[in-house]
Structure formats: structure tokens, C-alpha cells
Amino acid sequence: MLGSGAKAAKPSFVSYISPEEIHIKEPIEKEVNPHLLPGEQLLCEASTVYKYIQEDGSNRGTYGKLVCTNFKIAFLDEDSTSDDNEPQFKNKIIGENDITLQCVDQIYGVYDEKKKLLTGQLRKYPEKLIIYCKDLRVFNFCLRYTKEEEVKRIVSGIIHHSQTPKLLKRLFLFSYASAAPNNTDGRNQTVMFDTLEDWRDELERTKGDVQYKAVSTNEGYKVSEKLPLYFVVPICVSEESILKYEGRGIPIWCWSCHNGAALLKMSAFPKEQDDSTSQMQKAFLDGIYRTIRKPPYELLKTDDLSSSLPSLQEIQTAYTRFKQLFLIDNSTDFWATDVKWFSLLESTNWLEIIRRVLKKAIEVVECLERQHTNVLLIEESATDLCCVISSLVQVMMDSYSRTKSGFQSLIQKEWVIGGHGFLDRCNHLHRSDKEEAPVFLLLLNCVWQLVQQYPPAFEFTETYLTVLSDSLYVPIFSTFFFNSQHQKDTTMTGESLKTQSSPFRFLTVWDWSVQFDPKAQAFLNNPLYAEKPKPDKSQRKTARFKHQRQLSLPLTQTKSSPKRGFFREETDHLIKNILGKRIGKFINSSDEPPNSFREFYDSWHSKPVDYHGLLLPRIDGPEIKVWAQRYLRWIPEAQLHGGGTIATAAKILDLMEEVQNLQVKMDEEHSQAISGDIHAVPMLRNSARLSSLFPFALLQRQSVKPALPTSTWKDLEDEDDLVKRDDEFVDLSSDML
């Protein structure tokens, strides 16, 4: 206590937390049980578990029950049984507090305020559990108030069922497929490419049936278990050639350009061979190349992707570093890393890998479009980087691949049927970390760059891409849970392919009605999509000539902004940077492109964009951005309340709703109802109540400012309100046009 003559000290503590925010909900009294899917079984549970809403020192949270099933980890509180404030974009399979076992990345325990990675058998059980998810969510559970026996059961159960190696048939995929009713949506227009007719139709669509043929040589997998049952090869390739080396050394058709040039891929021969075998294989390849390369009319360029692109290990390392920037435990960590955001981001090398992959795809496009040259992509198995490049080339050159059904058909053709090892690359079975690599995520990141650069060219939205990336970890769909068509077929029918009946009825991820109702599916469709006009025969030749442009890289590089103080000069750009509007400084390329490529790239970007023609991404450093919706959607500090692109989307959807209401009135005159239509538009009356990362993060996820000195926040606030400032990089009015 101060003496009577002493001067009272000036208060130095400033609270940024209101009394309401530190209120802790009492433990729930009524029994809350998890909603179980067909085939789902409850394995263990713990009551009186405290889930932190946000780990920022305020201890805000709620009590509930933590359960583990053979499908998911779920936290159940009294809100779990309430239908009040139900989000507009609700997943029918995965709830807000649900984590599928395949989505668990790492689990940490907290012992006396120290974090420790949890694996295997535990001698001592933690007082707090932190679960990091592959979709970048972070869950913090306090176990101090839970019974000791329940803590042992739930922690051991979660670690065992989510982290230990397992057999393929132990996945929930099989439990669900054998128990769920077979009532899939028949409106799915995705081409599955599991029949010979599908391949012939694709050849006819791309006018590739003149030089290429669909073959059934691999029926019964007599050629190779890695190849699909049906695929396309050059007409001159014989069945004997296909059989000779189990499909290796055979150019497999991916797609044909309008000028007749084709994109092909090939599984390479092993590099370490004895001399006689190498000579035989070289002679075999020379004969194959001669069947494709027929100068001067048909030229062939080969590209070994294993030497021209980063290795899978480099891709995995870069992504591991990159995702750590977004797995934020608490508000303090977020602001601490934000001070050195640019250097941390650049050091991961993830954006540079995206740039290199897009650049490689543009090089292939130039060969096909400008040089009329066949391109043969070569890789050890032709099922990883070949899939990425071939898919990107088709998205850039074929407007059909930019529709939702076309893009889904592309993924089926190049990835699912093409034999990409989703099971190993996603490490769904936790067998080997060495095989894990985010190859499919790399493709989605590259496609997102195109979507955000040319929104009217795509029928789907970035929300569609985000949901598709989340679906990698939902084991009720077979799409992303097998390494090959052979593995799926043999698993479905038992060890023998001769068995006709199957006990499993696998779902495909392309049936979006399984995850979302019609109202939520509207967020997957782009309301600004510029639909392709009906072809005019009189202008067909002119339109085709526009495709054949001489295009190229910008000759003047964008200068990086000089380093400035974080709190004053860079404050006005903070929100823009964090949402990817100007992510990273220019990434200098050590491999300068050749002049022809520079001309091709530069010329294309100097002309108006044809949204149904060729699309080339801008690949200068500042143009390669962070996919904000996917990577920042769970971080409250990264949200703009009532701002961002959602403001534009809300206005568009309101306008569409008004048009629909007028349509209803017109239809009523003819006694026609349009309720229940899949294109129904959700109501977004008050965009100010939404955040910039809607529909995944809502305004209710409030962020508490860290306890920085008051003078620092005053400096920030002296600048204009960050949320209300005009964004020099984003012109909403121009986007609307």
C-alpha cells in the first residue's frame, strides 16, 4: 500500500478483452451423443473436456465431450445439438468440430507448459492436447478437469487410430461403402474414363482420333498393374510394343491441340541397367520416337520432368515449411511471425515452386500452340509431375477444362485413372513418410493462380478448389484413396478380378450432394462465369487464328519494394499482404527463358484476354500469391470483417436473387415452381456481417488484439482505418464489370 504522501503510479495495463469474452461456459448437463454415419462406430470418449475457442491467454472456451470413432475425432458441446445459427455453407459429413482421422497431421501434448510430440505408447498423459490438421485447423483441448481414466483412453485412442500404420481395408472407406445405401445423385456429368467409349469420345472431342487410338491391351491388367484398363496411344504403336516392357517406353496420349499437335506422357526406363539392356531399350525408344516424329510436318520435343522440375522431396520439404506459417497456436504467435512475414514466406520456396511449375506449363503450351510440336513428358512413373503439367496445359488451352464438369473429368483422366498414388502421396495409411508429397495440392495451388487472375474464365470458384482440397481427407469417397485403378478393382472384388459382385459401393467425390445441400453448392459455382457463346461458322477460322499468337515473358521485371519499418510504413499494406494481394517480393529466376518463350509470353499478355481461348498466367514474383482462402481461413487475425471479395460476391448474389424472384413471378403465371433447384442462390443480405474469408470463417470468430504497447496501436490507428481504406490493388467496381 502506498503512503499517504506518495504519488499514485499511472496505470500501465490496458485490457483489450471485454468481460463477456472471458466468460467460460459451464459443463453441459444434458447428454450429447455424436451423429454416426453408416458403418461408423464409437471407440472411446471423454467428458468434461474444455475446448479453447482461441488460445490467446483469455481462456475463452466451452466444456463438452471429446469422442473418437473409426471415422473422426469430434468435440460435442451443447451447440452441437442446436440448429440455431446454422451456417449457410454447412458440410453434411464433417462438422465444424469434426476432424477425420486422415486429416490429423500431428498431435502434441502440453506438460508443464512445454509442448511434446505424441507418438506410440505414453508413460505420462498430457494436461492439454493440441491437434494440428492437414486442412490447417488447430484444436486446443484442456484435459485438467477430465477423469484420469478417460484421459488415458481418449489420448491413447486418438494417437492409435490417427497416427499408427494401418491396412488398406481398415480405412473407414470400406466400412462406409459396405453399410451406406446406394443412393447417389444421378445428375453427375463427370466423365469417369473407366470405359473404352469414354476415351474414344475424348479423342473425338479433341479431334485426336485421326492419329491416335484407344486400346484395351491392358484388360485384365496383363500389361501392367500401374496402367489403367484403357488408354490412348499413337495409331502406329503395336500391341507387341506395349507388352514388351510392361508399358514403359510407350507414349500415352493426354490431349490434342486444335492444330493437331498432341501432349503425351511416358514412363521412363530405370536409369541403372546393364549395358546390353540399355542398348535394347535405347533402340526400342528410337523406334517409338520415329513413329511420332515425322519432319517437317510432325515434330517431337521430349521433356524429362525429373531434371527440369523440383523433386518430390523438395516439394514436400517446401510445403512442410510453408504450412507451418499458418498452423497458428495463438494470437501472440501470429503477430510475432507477421513482423518477418516476407522473409519467412520466401524462405519456404513454395511460391517459387508454383512459379516454376506454371512456367514449365507455359513452355509446353508454346510448343503445342506456336511451334505445332508434339510434346512428350517423361517421368519415372509418369504419375506425379506429368499429371501436374498435363493438367495445367489443358486448363490453359482447353476452355472445357475450365468448366466444373470438364475440370472434374480432367482430374479423373489424368490423376485417378492415370494412376497417381493418392494413397501414398497423402500418406493415408501412415506407412511411409518418404512417399508423402503434396503433388495434387500443388496442382490446385497452380489452378488457383489462374482462377484469381482470370475469374470469368472459370465456371467454378476458389471455394470449389478449397473444398476439393479438403475432400482429400474425407474417407467416404474412393476418388482420392487408391494408388491405381488396379488397386481399387482388386480391393472391390477381392483378390480375383473374375468375381462379378462387389460388397462395396464406393462414392465419388464429384457427387457434391453428399457433402452439401443445393443452397451450399451455389458457392461452388461462379456467378461471373462468361459462358461460351455458340460457335459461328463464319468466324471459326478467325477465332482459330487468334489462338496462334506469338507470346512471351515481360522484359521489365517488377521491382521489389524497399524494406521499410513494419509498424508505420507497411501498416497500410498489412491486410493486403496477408490476404495475398501482394505476397512476397519478386522471386528472381536463375533460369532465364529463351527469346522465343519471352516473345510468346509477352505478346499474349499485350492483347485482350479471350476467356474461352488460350490463358497464360502471369508468373512474375508478385503475381504468384498465397491462396488466402485455404491457408488463412481459420486465423481470425487475417480476416477483414465486412470486407474483401465477399462484399463483391454478396452484391452479385443479391442481384441474382432478385432476378430469380422475378423469374418466380413469371413462372407462377405458368404454374411452374423452381424451388429446390441446384442453382438456388443463398441470401447474403448483410455483407457487413460476413468476413473476407466467408464461407469458412464467420464474424463470430473474433480476434483479440495482442497486448502491444498503446503507443504502437496508436501509430496504427493514426493511419486510416485499414478495413475502410481504398485498396490500390483491388478495384471492386472494375471486377464487377
UniProtKB/TrEMBL annotation:
Signal peptide: none
UniProt entry keywords in alphabetical sequence: Cytoplasm, Sarcoplasmic reticulum
Myotubularin phosphatase domain ranges (all copies): 193-631
Record-linked PROSITE patterns: PPASE_MYOTUBULARIN
GO cellular component annotations of the record: membrane; sarcomere; sarcoplasmic reticulum
Domain of life: Eukaryota
InterPro entries xref list: MTMR12-like_C (IPR022587), MTMR12_PTP (IPR030576), Myotubularin (IPR030564), Myotubularin-like_Pase_dom (IPR010569), PH-like_dom_sf (IPR011993), Prot-tyrosine_phosphatase-like (IPR029021)
GO BP annotation list: phosphatidylinositol dephosphorylation
Main location: cytoplasm
Pfam name, any one: Myotub-related
Localization per record: Cytoplasm, Myofibril, Sarcomere; Sarcoplasmic reticulum
Family the entry assigns: Belongs to the protein-tyrosine phosphatase family. Non-receptor class myotubularin subfamily.
PANTHER family, per the entry: MYOTUBULARIN-RELATED, MYOTUBULARIN-RELATED PROTEIN 12
Protein name as it appears in the record: Myotubularin-related protein 12
Organism (species): Odontophorus gujanensis
Gene, per the UniProt record: Mtmr12_1
